[in-house]
Amino acid sequence: MENLILVTTGIVAALVTFIVNEKLNQGPVRASAIVSLVVGSFFYWFPEELSNELTQNIPIVFIGGSFIGMVSSNIISNYWMIGISGAIFSFFYLNASNFFNGYGGTLGTAACISLLVTLSLPVITKKHRIVNGFLILRGLILKRKK
Amino acid sequence: MVFIASILFEKINTTPILVIMCMISVFVTLAYVKVPLRHDTHFMDDFSVVLLVALGAAISYYFNIQLGLGPVLSVGLIGTVASFVPKINKKSERLQLVPGSIYCGSFIGMTKPSIATDWHFVLLAGTLAGILLVFSKGVFHGMGGKLGTIAFGGVALASLFLFLFF
């Protein structure tokens, strides 16, 4: 049950941040920071409202999920995909390696990987146009050979 | 990839997680081909970002460890204040760099005291992350989690340096 709450938190955090970032035009840093500040403050001032485990983990999952919502709408603008990224992030959080436990930036790394996973999905499901520096470079090299 | 590999090695006996992590590795590799790359030039001005990241790391570490606010509240507070800095002068290009740089640095301050033992570590990690941020200017532009990944790189490199040389 607690895992389900944490997965839902990841999804909600990503979606709320994306809405504040893109729809309310607050920019990625302010969107992520403000929503995290609100949730962090709530659990800082009311630590006994929920169980100890949830009080410790919800703010961390929320701030991690909020990093997903910092994505530009030029890259992803679909709410479903952002929600899926939030769920994948929570999966990462629940199965994170102890090796990097306590390192700053692990949440951001997990968020980035979650977004990359979601970004790769259209490659498999649809035939999207691929815009990439690697392909441009390959094109240049092939042109030179000709 | 190191981050995924560390999970893979740790969950080697848990087949479902191992399968999912392998799938994630494939997806991430596919995504690298799809994420747009911007070719930006680097100016010396950009290196002021290094100082800003180190500053963000130091403030966040102070809030998190010395004042005991905890990582989430510290980062939220610093990020919110930093996000309003460009409003001082909307035309200044340097001020536009402040929120991202400070927010990136603040993630370094989230490091637990068992790893970030003193200020030297925080400042070293901040400087390394700042350099990474400057060089990654055109990579993953607009991607969520980019700043956190850079902060993680700074912390991991700093702990590697300290492990190897001290």
Automatic annotation (TrEMBL), chain A:
Superkingdom of origin organism: Bacteria
Membrane-spanning segments: 29-46, 58-82, 102-124
Keyword terms: Membrane, Transmembrane, Transmembrane helix
Protein name: Uncharacterized protein
UniProt lineage: Bacteria, Pseudomonadati, Bacteroidota, Cytophagia, Cytophagales
